[in-house]
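Per reviewer request, we include the raw input and output of the structure prediction for the construct analysed in the revised manuscript.
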Amino acid sequence: MQLLFTIVTNGYLYGFLNGKIYRGGLKYLCVPGLNCYSCPGAVASCPIGALQALLNQRGIQAPFAALGFFFVFGSFLGRFVCGWLCPFGLVQDLLYKIPLFKKRKRLPGHRVLKYGKYAALILLVCFGSMFLFGGFAKVPAFCKYLCPSGTLLGALPLLGTNETLRGQAGGLFLWKLGILLGVVLLSVKVFRPFCQYLCPLGAVYGWFNRFSLVQLQWDQERCVDCGACERACPVSLSRREISRSPECIRCGKCADACPKSCLHFPGRSGRHSTKTQSSQDA
């Protein structure tokens, strides 16, 4: 699903050939994942980029369009978006599958580091460069100074096909390239480090996890305390934290691992229980 969604939302193939960004009417819409506006194949916008653009308008204006977008997708899906619909999440998942290094689910100091995404949301997205870079000039600071998705999906494809842009690449591009390389290397060893520690989009959707409509439901009465779900969870959540924790990306690995089908998405409990019973009868 992640791969299909990435292909569909980056389906402007002509952009990859001529090195130009699609600027049609669909760019006024957002996709739920971290999909860079500047990717030459992107047919819609990144919600974090859209939020920054609205916040950076002259005067003080409430970004109702972006806030409404987050409310709709957050209240319905929560961080299901991160687990199933985010292109940069797909990139990290593929890197983690590379059979190198001893794998880790978390970094040391996780309890503190996990708040980094909230710091990125507040300091770089909401306040932009007001106090950190360039005085009071409004700049999309997250996109400009941090976002590795923009470098991978936007800057590198554009530089590869546009000679004029290659001549303009300087220190800022090298900074962003260094961040991307760091995230790439870390992703080979640690599960989704950018999602866990730096992604402001995950911080937004995580806030909705506790009450969003799509939940991983836990049938506590059928649970046999085998711990299979906790071992399978890529971010090391306990059974009581799964789905409701802001860190849960609802990838469904816990549900797949559960031998009693105690964990399931809405509407799937009947099929799972039938399958389990049939296996036991056999």
